[in-house]
Amino acid sequence: MMGLLDLFKRRSADDSQKNDQESDALRQKSAHVSDKPQKEAETIIATEPVQEKPPRGETSAMAQEGKTAPEAEPVAKAKPVAEPKPDHAEAKHAEVKPVAEAKPAEGRMQARPIAVPRNGSDVIIRWPQNGTGPAWLAQSKFFVYADAGFLRSRGASTFIEAWRMGKEKSGSRRSVFVPEFELDRLTPEERERAKQWNDVCSIRTGQKDYEQLFRAVSQMKWNIVFLTEKGGHNNTIAEAAAAAGVSLRIYMVSEDGKIYAVLLSQTHTGQRRMQQATQARTQTPVNAFNEPMKLAKISRSVPPAEIPASGSVVYDDHGNSIRLEKPVFSDSTSITYETDLQERYAKIYTKSLLGTTLPEQKCRLMLSRRIEINGVCWPVSGLVTQEGQFTGILVPKAEGFQLREALLRESTVRKSFAGWDRQDMTTLAITILNMIRDLQSWHVYFGRLNPSTILVKDKSTVYFMDMDAWQIDGYPVLFENRIFDPPELQREKTGLRFFDQDEMNYQIAYLMFMLMMPGRLPYVRSGKCTVVESIIAQSFAFGMGRETRERQEEGSKREAAAGFWRFVWDHVDYNLAMAFYHTFARDGEASVKGKRYGIDKWRGYMVDYRGKLSNPYDPESKKLYPTTFRRANNRTFEKCDFCGKEHPSFYFSKYITVRNGGRTEQIELERIIGPDKKLCKTCFNESAGAIFPDDKGAYFVCKGCGVKVYYTVEAKLRHDYMEGIGVWKPQKWCSNCNETYEVRTCIDCGEPFDLTVGRYKYLTEKGYDLPKRCFRCQERRRAGKS
Amino acid sequence: MSEFRSNAQYIEDRALGITGDVRSLVCFCVDTSGSMKHELSMWGKERKIDLLSRVLQNIIDAFSKDPQMRHAVAISIVTYNTYAQCKEDFRDAALYEELEGACRFEDVQNLTNMANALRVCLNSIRDIQDALEVKDQASYTPLLVFMTDGEPTDSGLWQKKFAEIRKMVSDNRLRVFPIGIGGKANMRLLSGLFPEGAIPKDYENRYCMIREQDFLSVFDDIRRLIYEQNNNFADEVRTMPVCGDENTLNSQGGEDIASFLLEACIDI
Q: Which among B140, B248, B267 has the least Cβ separation from residue A329?
């Protein structure tokens, strides 16, 4: 153990000395362009925390990191808005040019595109994407730590080799740091192996565990990429980093040396800090409303003889007159008018609602608290008629488009959210969640979601305009929309009720889903089941297969064709998609009452997703409506020989099912279309007439109605094969003509038999008699005659 | 999903791959029996079939020209006389723009094969629902607009089909608009398409087309219903806002439960 350590230390010290000299030379060289390193280090682009003094116990290799600072400076100036392009993009997709590896000469200039802010700044850290290669990492601003798990992993040697090459190409002097105490976990053989990587790995001495290690580096405000193996002590590492306030992400290394983020229960310190901030922010104010428990006592009251309308004058609590102008919103219990006050709307209730004391009681209760949250249209005064009878409320003006309008239809989304991308949508989701959360701290709950009353001005400006309809104290919501109710409430009898936090969490998830898949509901609304049946059965429309996110139905996997929504779903962030799946699918872990994810969790997912969208692996992922599958690092795209489009390899058909004399066989497709030919699943279900226009086997003409009907490509290929083995009989009737026209009774056996539409048409048109005997008796007669 | 389809079905299939709107499905089932050649009433000069053709074309045009509804409404047209046939398979209203003569009905024959007509309609609806499902797309409860000016001339099969439709309507899997054309339409028979107790008020008068105006008002009802479907998350929401003005935004969140339930809570 000590021998190995000594070896590492000695080599590190030698390297350090050598590198110090090189660094000095470089520093002198670049001095003329690096006159304000401190300032630039604070910017988004180059925020290498290298100006800090390394902590005690840092090896020389670590110290050399500090000397690269002056070089970072011109980089920041030269490419202030460089788009991040990790090298992993190159391997799979030619259109995404790998900056670092393809152009080593410029690599140094462009290899620092990822924005790595100092901790505590508001800027989002653009962590390396899954599939990022070591060459890029070696030149990035991240500090890379590794443990024994990494050193013994299969991908370690490939990783180190690529790192080494990256260093050589770019001239970087970065190292992978291994904590000293991790070496104890290595076997002698593993240590021997690790010795060969001495030029890349540096040992970090002086600490006995991760708590000490992270405490020591906590002041440096580094962003650490931690390499390890799957499982193991990852949670311990993450927790120690979080406790010390160190910004860290854990990755594992694949066999090809690429890094992949490891999912943890409490992964990122950013999330943890955010949660702490959230807790602080959502502390219940002392004068919050009571938690809704029991219906308030409501009495009858005499409504005004005439309900004010456009042109009428009403009076606020201070006796000021307000003229009602044109109506802007309306529901079944009220009309909201513009007023002669620039910034105020007047909401006037209907006579039937004013026949009870509910609106006035609720209004007075709301006015007893002063809630000032941006965008929340909290009532500012009650409104009375000239006779002094309560008639409505005065609320702040709201503007923007109704969220419902935007979420209902994909075509409306394109109109309302013109120019928006998915990142904007996540910002909108976060804005809404923040507002709901702030209101919840006052014990003001939406109860039943009503997207018609949420107005969106822009992604960060949202108005909740119907606050008096929310569930507050003893006052429930006064409308019912089963679409938003969780499955357990679907069969509940209609009535006034209070929604608990868990039921509202479900609705929050519903809203988040609609924002991420705008124009789509989580549950299927189809011919086979109504949406309510679908909610009860929890048949979530989307699945989470391994990579393909296949749809799961009744326990069996059935892959849907590449369709509009499948593409959109495919691009939703994995963690978020998984959370949706767990919430909405029957077998999801958060699909039952009491286990649903809370608002903070959804907010966390959205913040994380927004961060990832700053630097998506596939630019298509940023679009609200992507037009193809996600180009993920573990997917190989191939070209279809029939349509010429590129699809992931899982989207190509390999077999065809053939029925041969009662047996069903799976025939390899290449036996029919030829070897090395690829046929995608879209073409598989396409009209054979479109793919094989000159082939007579692509269609048939119905003998009954004369309509030309086209086979799918799959059916045509199957028929070709069956024809080849002599088991195919050409088709005569289309499905409509094959239906029963009338039921006749056989004159021989007396049994009823069906006369099909096609046969009826054919016989009558030819002038033949209609059959009097069933098919079996006809056969028997023929056999007897012969 | 059938392994063979008409060209129109493939066209719609491709449209489903590029737009994700929830579809309102409307199947117009048009009687083209011999009696449809006659005038609607003794005052009118236009033949029933021509008038129907014109009104139908108008409603399709209204949807296809509306940018929000172009891909939100899919329409099919089934015609029937001695036989029934799907004249136009379900396709988005937008795709009707490219279609010439979709609403021209020239093949007029003697008989009124209702059973066959309803079967073809249901098959057509089933086909589009299958196609939507394969594409992971949703649809609202389909609407069947069944039009006739006479009585069924087929064997007793129509009764079975009527029962099937009644069941679908009561299960909320179908909404039906049985429309009688001319004074001789058997409205009582047509009301058999509604489940017991669900026959609309004044059905026999309201859905019997005697004048051109009757057509316009019923087709306007259908149009409004489709818009309503598309303006609510649920097609069950029937509560309307107090102010029905088109320029006033509807902020109704669902069915109003205040009006009838508050009474029970009042402490008198």
A: B248
